[in-house]
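User: My instructor asked us to take a sequence, write out its structure as tokens, and then describe one feature of it. I'm not sure where to start. Here is the sequence I was given:
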Amino acid sequence: MRRSPRLLAWSLSACLSFAGLMQPAQAALIGTAPALAAETAADSAPARLQATLMRAEVAQALQARGVDLDEAQARVAALSEAEAQQVLARIDQDPAGAGDLIGTAVFVFLVLLTTDILGFTKVFPFTRSIR
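Assistant: Let's start with the prediction itself. The structure tokens for your sequence are:
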């Protein structure tokens, strides 16, 4: 019976000591232009990649090379914003039908290796997931 009030007092003092660390939330109105810019910047790279995959000629080219379109879309969805921007930069820089085959193969290998290590996919048997 004596421990209960003492435990309550310690718990209450611990809670109150952390109450000073909390900061109140601040809200302000933002304009339409900054909100629209933030929205388009947030989903622009992955959305552009998904739109590129949905084009008929891209889908046909992927299927001709033995790539499953659903798997490609899942991998694009697993990319981070920075990775999607890197892929878009490569697409914008390389001329159509040309490019460095070895560089592209290394890039695809590194993306697949990263997704394997992060646990999103299981392509390579020699990797272990961090999950």
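For the description part of your assignment, you could build on this observation: The radius of gyration is 25 Å. Try explaining in your own words what that tells you about the chain.
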